[in-house]
Description:
This protein has 327 residues and is α/β, with parallel strands linked by helices. It has one domain (3-325): 3-Layer(aba) Sandwich (Rossmann fold). Helix content is 34%, strand content 16%. The protein is built from 11 helices and 8 strands. An 8-stranded mixed beta sheet has the order 1-2-4-3-5-6-7-8, with helices on both faces. Strand 1 (32-36) and strand 2 form a beta hairpin. The chain is globular and about 55 Å long. This is Alpha/beta hydrolase. Residues 1-21 form the signal peptide.
Amino acid sequence: MRRVPLLVAFALGMISIGTQAMEHAVKTLSPERLGMGNNELAVGLSQDWQRPLPDVQRALIIVHGRLRNAQTYLHSAEQAASQAGQSATTLVIAPQFLNQDDIERHPSPDSLLRWQGNAWMAGEPSRGPGPVSSYAALDAIITRLSDRQQFPSLTEIVIAGHSGGAQVVQRFALLGQHHPGLEDDGIKLRYVIANPSSYAYFDEHRPVKVDAGTCPGFNDWKYGLLKLPAYAAGQTAQQLEQTYIKRDITYLLGQQDTDPHHPALDTSCAAEAQGTYRLVRGHNFFDYLKQRHPQGLQQRLVEVPGVGHDGDKMFTSPEGQKALFGQ
């Protein structure tokens, strides 16, 4: 007699799990596709890049956060470009790193790349259809932009992200492959890292004392350089650091991003070893860089007054517009 209620409870539980998955899925898939062999990456674009864009002087690659809401970030970047008077000369590209929940909610071709959970943040390979690192996907966008027949006037590529997207950009600046064709064509590559929860450090030093016994993974990737993803194969920690310190990077920090209990803040022991909240974590990491490289860096830290953990306000602020567009 008890089997019926148990079966009903089981069925209701499965429905609940399915509903939660639907709630966690993105509301909108970005409409454009970037071909990568037999795979395709979902992207949002401010202009049609299927035709030559002779007026485009800057490409802004904007990386979404953990919600994977690429269209929201696309619109924020478009608004920032408009306010800066740079819409006509800027192509905004918003890659979308989908996961399995998104594919289950939205009818999608088998060729569309998808990752396991938030594995894309750390540059892990996609779950399907082929194993492609999210960082390799950014490389593919850069390669597309280096086509001088399509972009004859391009002078710089800016890779920017907020929150989870900023984590991607910081790690990509560290592990990202060299693109010699950009230098040959006079195309500058810059990075804007806004309010990430954590950073990848070069050694075991942390601003907050950490007990390796109770937090054994604090120096593993994505917090340190141990157990690097396959994308980084063949590169030593020293090589990675020397490459990173030569990058043109702006760390953009909201002065009000100081909530140690923010729901999207990484509160793992590995992240807590970097500081209590995002603003102090950013300062701690930048101080760490300056201590290791007192000869100077081509990097800067900029605070945005009156703004907390809000990507739109960060990028549309005067400080954000200057970081993105050099104005």
